[in-house]
Structure formats: C-alpha cells, structure tokens
Amino acid sequence: DGMNVLFIVVDDLRPVLGCYGDKLVKSPNIDQLAAQSMVFSNAYAQQAVCAPSRVSFLTGRRPDTTRLYDFYSYWRVHAGNYSTMPQYFKENGYVTLSVGKVFHPGVSSNYSDDYPYSWSIPPFHPSAEKYENDKTCRGKDGKLYANLVCPVNVTEMPGGTLPDIQSTEEAIRLLNILKTNRQKFFLAVGYHKPHIPLRYPQEFLKLYPLENITLAPDPWVPKKLPSVAYNPWTDIRQRDDVEALNVSFPYGPLPDDFQRQIRQSYYAAVSYLDVQVGLLLNALDNVGLSNNTIVVFTADHGWSLGEHGEWAKYSNFDVATRVPLMFYVPGMTSFPVSQGARVFPYLDPFSHIGGSAPRGQSKKVVELVSVFPTLAELAGLQVPPVCPETSFGVVLCTEGTSIVHYFNVSEEKVEEGKEACDDTDRCFNEEPVAFSQYPRPADTPQWNSDKPKLKDIRIMGYSVRTIDYRYTVWVQFDPNNFSADFKDVHAGELYMMETDPNQDYNIYNNASHGWLL
C-alpha cells in the first residue's frame, strides 16, 4: 500500500529553530515535528542560492552535473534529461502535487516548475506572490516602501493575504481531496518566508522585543578572509530601507540598530512560517493521514544574519550552506498512535511554553543531494543507482547516498568505533563529508559577486565540510567548458570546528594540507 509523502521545503531557512538548540526563536510546531522525527543537525546544501540548490536536490545531482550555477538554464536541455524526485514517485504510481515555491520558477524549471515531467497536475502558485517586491511596507512617515524589514497588517495587503497563507490553504484543500480518493500522493509544499523581503504579519514582532535581540557573535569581516570568499549582499542593498542607509560597498557594515532589526524580523518571519507548518501538519491529522504519511522538512540553504559582516546567502560558510533536515516516518521514527489520536496538534507560538527534544538526532554530516535516494528507500521504492563518474547521459541516478542507515544508529556506538561506510559513500577516513560550491566573477567583491551569470564565472569555490573542519579552495573556472583547474588556486580557507565553530579564523596559510586529502 505504501506511504504518502509530504515534502516541506522552506526558502532561505537556516536552523534557527528550538529543536536545533536556538534559545530565542519560538518554533513550537516545527519542534513538535522534530520530536517525532529523525533530525540531522549537520545537513548542507550543495550551493547556497535558490535555483541551483533546488535543481540539485530535486534531481539528486550536484551543480557540476546540472550545470546550473545561476538562474538561466533548464537542466534537461542544458545538461542531461535527469529524472527528478517527484517524477520518480509519479512513475511509481503516486499522484504528485506542487504548492508554492518548490522548483525555482522561471527558465531553470522550464517556466512550468518542470510540469508535466514532475507533477500530475499543474503546480499551484499563490496569487499574492506577485506583490512580494512591491511597495507594501509602511514607513515611519506613513508612506509605502519596498523595504527589507517589512512587518505588515495582512488586512491591508493586496487580496488581504500573503503567499504562504495561500499556500497553506491550498495544501489543506488538496489533502482533503486526497483523503477521499485514497491514491498514494507526494505533496510538495514550498514556503517563501523567511526569504527577503522579511514581509510577515506584524503581530509576530511581539514575540521578539528588540532589547532581546543581539548582534551576530562575529559581526566583523574576518582579517584573513580571502576577498573572493566574501559576498557583498547586493540584493539587500537594493531594498529601500537599506539603500537609505547609504552603506559603503562592499564591506561597509550596517548600523548596529538596523542589524538587530533584520535579525528580529528574520526570527519573526520564522515564527510566522512555524504557524503555517503547524496548520498544515494539523490538517494532516484532521484528514487521518498522519499515520501513513512520511513528512520531510528542509530548506534550500541558509542565510547569514551579520556573521562575518555578511548578509543573505551566496557563500560557502555554514551559515549559508547549513539547513534543517528532518524525516518523520510513522512507525519508524515515531510510535504509531491509536486511530483518531493527534500526532500534530496545532501549537500557538504566542502561548506555547516549553520545547521538545528531537526523537532521534544524528550529527553525521549529510547533504541535500541525498534526500532523493533516502526518501525513495523510506517509501519502499527501489533506490536510484549511484551515478557513474560522468552521468550526463544517465536519466536516473543519484550523486547522493541514502542516509536511512543513520536513522537507528545510536550516537554512543558511533563514538566508540566509527562505522565502516559502504562503497556508495564518499568517504574521508570513513567519515561522511558534504560538498558545497559557489561561483565568483572575480577575486574581489563586485556588484555581481553574489549571483554571477554563467558566462561571467571565473572562479569556483569548492568547499568540503566534515565534522572536524571546513576546507575551501577557490580555483580558476572556465564557463565555456565547465572546467575547474585545481592547479590554479586563487585562495583557500580552513576552519577547525573544535576551536573555531563560527569560522572566523582562517588557518589555510599556516597549515600543511596533505592530511586533508
């Protein structure tokens, strides 16, 4: 009979969640999901920008295989006709549905969110989405602006709603239909917040008094940070409120009080998101499907909140590449509940007190590219084969590896003797690693450093994250033949996690690197 799948992907969400140890955030519904899930505390995206990351984890291939580092090509035409995760479920008899931002819209998903390959019916996009970047933020002078920090009165918004509210309503509507027609489903729900602009219902600010908001622990540009590694957060500079601050390019710090406002609004947007997730999971209970639906919760990448003097994504640091990742699997990660009992009662972040620890937590380093084979295995489908060295001509394969074998390994056992890893794992001393990468147009920060177009890419930063370190080399890259020259290293970074968890002290130049490779 098989399990249904509810796949929740959030835009630009770093793990500022109670279940990930954040003490400030109020995220009771996501924490409640975590309490019955396998939670991965060291999960990383393959490139810290929307379209490349989403195409990567939805196809199970790395950006060097999708050949998408920007927003401007469709992998089936430009790289290879790769099957996607929803397509694989669809071909295995599931009805597949997309709500909100799952694929990145536009040319990178063929202006159709890869319909009809990936989805049984055309994807749903909330109508309020088109107002996201309009002047809907009321300034102190009463006028409307296109601000970064944008708490709003929802009743004053066009249509009296916001995109994520509409996506939740549509997903709930679909769940009610799916309940009656009893067909196995793969329902993907993509939430927009906390992507900029930080536009959310203003009442969520009440959860985060400004006096409780601190700056990042390391709000300065590290002395030994290579200039090629720095992302100059061009997109937020273009918002009206940031533009008015007249901050110097590329390093000029934002004023401290404004930094705290951004952090406050990011947290508020996360709590607004938590409410949407809570309503969605509560609906899963209401239609009686919590006992036979796998729930995956993740994000396309993180977002810097002032760390290293940086904002937004577009880098190889943990703050930009690390994502929440959890799998709720009825009967495996949670005990089956009696018919009619609530698995996901809605929790109000304004009144709910107290957190809940994750059901199981793995510190193993894992990659989003592994979600496809993992979900296939959890659903009882054949796991797609591991890709050969070059796989442009291979329709179905994955460059990730199923991480189901981490689900029931107790952490203590792992500490004693490192478990051997099978052939499919890329292993460094039998320890899993995560690869991320980021392109740059030049060695110094430019206006297009955050989002260079393919033709302008000259350098690729390849980054390896293990449990012990993050190691990055910025190497010469030729966009005409997609080749990286590892003999031509422009700069390097090495951060040791034990002594430098925030990645502030680059020791690349005072280390010998033989032991790494």
Automatic annotation (TrEMBL):
What is this enzyme's catalytic activity, as reactions? Hydrolysis of the 2-sulfate groups of the L-iduronate 2-sulfate units of dermatan sulfate, heparan sulfate and heparin
Sulfatase N-terminal domain ranges (all copies)? 4-380
User: What SUPFAM superfamilies does this protein map onto?
Assistant: Alkaline phosphatase-like
The EC class name is hydrolase
What UniProt keywords are attached to this protein's entry?
A: Calcium, Disulfide bond, Glycoprotein, Hydrolase, Lysosome, Metal-binding, Signal, Zymogen
Question: Where does it mainly reside?
Answer: other
Q: Which GO terms describe its cellular component?
A: lysosomal lumen
The keyword Amino-acid biosynthesis belongs to this UniProt entry's keyword annotation: no
Checking Pfam families in the record gives:
Sulfatase (PF00884)
**Span of the signal peptide:** none
Compartment(s) where it occurs, according to its Swiss-Prot or TrEMBL record: Lysosome
UniProt EC number:
3.1.6.13
Gene Ontology BP terms: carbohydrate derivative catabolic process
Q: Which Gene3D superfamilies match?
A: Alkaline Phosphatase, subunit A (3.40.720.10)
Relate the assembly described in the record.
Answer: Monomer. The 58-kDa mature form is composed of two chains resulting from proteolitic processing, the 42-kDa chain and the 14-kDa chain that remain stably associated and form the 58-kDa intermediate form which is enzymatically active.
The UniProt function text for this chain reads: Lysosomal enzyme involved in the degradation pathway of dermatan sulfate and heparan sulfate.
Question: To which protein family does this belong?
Answer: Belongs to the sulfatase family.
Protein name, per record: Iduronate 2-sulfatase
The species this protein belongs to is Rhagologus leucostigma
